[in-house]
Design brief:
The protein is α+β, with helices and mostly antiparallel strands. It is built from 10 helices and 6 strands; from the N terminus they run H-H-H-H-H-H-H-H-H-H-E-E-E-E-E-E.
Length: 381
């Protein structure tokens, strides 16, 4: 028997559907074309030049140094408050001991009266929720003997003092926690600035890094020549000459100059400088105070401590200590501060040079004081 074929099913496409499909295809092609043209019309932003990178990195390092000084200030406050809390807790513990002694004495009276029959007013006082109010009741005061009265007074005094010290310790703990949070914020700021700077430097090619090093060398050479020029001027005009700072930069006014350093100061300065020289080659680390690494104010603080002179932790506080000195009157050991925000400090050694902890990636070294804009100087001792 002849096999029967199953009739094919025809799919009928209307002219309108054909037009819709064609339209979608055309739209898709047009979208691809537009995206391609848009990509061609928006080229990548040009890579920054080495000079631009240097400027940006220098700015980030300065911002990090400002944040470091803030970190140092907050850390000093945290350390002080931690010590304060510890002292308050110790005092509260001692006060609690005295309170327990007063309570035991009251308990002695209460036990004696209980043995003689009845619950005494002393016992009632001990178990009262509000001993002060109860003690204020005149009928109780009239019935207490002289020794009992003294015991009650001592108990109430110790109880009030213990409550006050516990409250003060709690407030100090709250302030300490706030300072710790602020400290963590300052730390994040420093780390963020330094990470951004490292990222910029890591993207430089070997040739660009060489160019960056050359720019640094040129800046150092210009600062060295400036120092030599200023020294020559002072030798040519002994006892005279204008201050080396530019007006409006915050540089110490010549009229504020401290004049020549006396023998006592020179002796201390020699000890401080000997310490600073011994640290040369150790790395700059933000927030560090030695002995293996330093930031700028950590180095000056440690150096003068070796000479028996106590300096505050931050540049913002160090600049307030001692006698202001004009740049032309600088003597070895004087502290020189830089930038209008007073974010950096070095120790003058003479001939227009200083020892300082410069910046991340660098070590304690000697450099011209004219490498950065001078804010002013002080003689700390």
């Amino acid at each position: 028997m002849p096999s029967h074929r199953k009739p094919r099913t025809r799919v009928l496409i209307s002219p309108g559907s054909r037009r819709t499909a064609a339209g979608l295809t055309t739209a898709a092609l047009a979208t691809v074309t537009l995206l391609s043209q848009s990509a061609e019309a928006s080229p990548r932003s040009p890579k920054p030049t080495v000079e631009e990178v240097k400027k940006k990195v220098d700015t980030l390092y300065r911002q990090a140094e400002v944040a470091t000084q803030k970190y140092n200030a907050v850390k000093e406050r945290v350390d002080a408050r931690r010590s304060e809390v510890s002292d308050l807790q110790d005092a509260a513990a001692r006060r609690t001991g005295k309170l327990n002694e007063a309570r035991r004495e009251l308990g002695t009276f209460a036990a004696a009266q209980y043995r003689s029959g009845g619950v005494s007013t002393t016992a009632q006082l001990m178990f009262s929720k509000d001993p002060q109010q109860f003690a204020d009741r005149s009928h109780l005061m009239e019935r207490l003997t002289g020794r009992q009265q003294q015991a009650v007074d001592a108990y109430q005094e110790q109880q009030a003092a213990a409550a006050h010290q516990r409250a003060e310790a709690t407030r100090s703990l709250d302030r300490l926690q706030e300072s710790r949070s602020e400290l963590a914020g300052s730390k994040r700021t420093v780390q963020g600035k330094l990470a951004e700077a490292r990222q910029l430097l890591s993207e430089l090619t070997a040739q660009e890094k060489a160019r960056l090093a050359e720019l640094e060398r040129q800046k150092e050479e210009a600062a060295r020549r400036k120092a030599e020029e200023e020294e020559r001027k002072q030798h040519e005009q002994p006892g005279g000459g204008a201050d080396t700072g530019s007006p409006g930069t915050g540089t110490t006014d010549p009229g504020q100059g401290g004049g020549p350093a006396d023998g006592s100061y020179r002796t201390k300065a020699e000890k401080a400088l000997a310490f600073a020289r011994a640290q040369m080659g150790k790395p700059y680390v933000w927030g560090a105070t030695g002995p293996n690494s330093y930031d700028c104010s950590g180095l000056t603080q440690a150096a003068w401590k070796a000479a028996g002179v106590s300096l505050p932790r931050t540049t913002w506080d160090q600049v307030k200590v001692g006698q202001r000195v004009a740049t032309k009157d600088l003597a070895p050991g004087d502290l020189v501060f830089f930038y209008n925000d007073i974010s950096h400090v070095g120790m003058y050694i003479g001939d227009g040079k200083m020892i300082h902890a410069p910046k991340p990636g660098a070590s304690v070294r000697i450099e011209s004081i004219y490498y950065m804009p001078i804010y002013g100087s002080v003689r700390p001792a």
